[in-house]
Each structure stands twice: as C-alpha cells, then as structure tokens.
Amino acid sequence: MEEEEVEEEEEMEEEEVEEEEEMEEEEVEEEEEMEEEEVEEEEEMEEEEVEEEEEMEEEEVEEEEEMEEEEVEEMEEEEVEEMEEEEEEEMEEEEEEEMEEEEEEEMEEEEEEEWKKKKKKWKKKKKKKWKKKWKKKKWKKKWKKKKWKKKKKKWKKKK
Q: According to the UniProt entry, which residue ranges have a biased composition of type Basic residues (predicted)?
C-alpha cells in the first residue's frame, strides 16, 4: 500500500511539476506573444510616425514650392508693370518733346512773319522818305534853275 501511495504521490508530484512546467511554458509563450505584439505595435507606430513625417515634409515642400512660384509670379507681374510704366513715361516724354518742337516751330514762324512785316514796313517807310527827299531835291533843283533863269534874264537886261 505504501508503495502505491508513494507511486501515487510521485505521480501526483510529477503531474504537478508537468502542470507547472506547462503553465510556465504557457506563460512564457504568452509573454513572448505579448512582447511580439508590443514590438509589432511599436513598429507599426514607428512606421505610421515615419509616414506622417514624410507626408508633413512633402506638404511643406509643396507649400514652399507654391510660395516660390507665387513669388516668381509676383516678381514677373511687377517687372511687367514697371516695363509698362516706363513705356508710358517714354511716350509722354516723346509727346512733350513733339509739343515743344511744334511750339518752337510756331514761334519761329511767328517771328519770321513779324520780321517780314517789320521789313516791309521799314522798306515802305524808307521808300516814302526817299521819295520825299527825292521830290525835295528835284523841286530844289527846279527852283534853283528857275531862279537862275530869272537872274540871268535880269542880268541880261542890265547889260
């Protein structure tokens, strides 16, 4: 009986040890599974973070490119506006110069006309003066001649 009891006890112990070992194994497996799951979750999290960072970087790069494009467009628009303004100014200057030239021409024409009028007037005046002088001279000559004739006559008579 004792032998049987001892055997039973041994079996019981063995079973207990086996059960404990099984339990331990199960625990170890569960722990390993848990660790694996954790590692997987961490890896997933890291991957997601990396993806998010990459997306963020891409978005930033896109935004920067858009900003640069906008700046370039603005610069081009400003250049075009400046060019237009310069052209307008040049046109205005040309118009002003043309106006000035026209005014100068008109002034010259007016001066020329005035000069011609003055010249004409002066000639007329001169002519009149000359005519007057000429008449006077002619008259004087005539008068002297007449006078001379009279004197001559008188002188002849006296002789």
A: 117-159
The pTM (predicted TM-score) of the whole model is 0.34
Rg (CA), the chain: 67
Place of tokens 């400003």: 78
Q: What whole-number distance in Å separates Cα of residue 3 and Cα of residue 9? A: 9
The distance from CA 86 to its chain's CA centroid, rounded to whole angstroms, is: 9
Could you please report the per-residue DSSP string of 11-54?
A: HHHHHHHHHHHHHHHHHHHHHHHHHHHHHHHHHHHHHHHHHHHH
Q: In whole angstroms, what is the distance from residue 117 CA to residue 115 CA?
A: 5
Distances (CA, A) of 110 to 89, 101, 114, 124, 143: 31, 14, 6, 21, 48
The helix (H) or strand (E) run that includes residue 120 is: helix 2-158
Q: Which amino acid is residue 100, in one-letter code?
A: E
> Model confidence over 126-149: pLDDT tens digits?
888 887 777 777 777 777 777 777
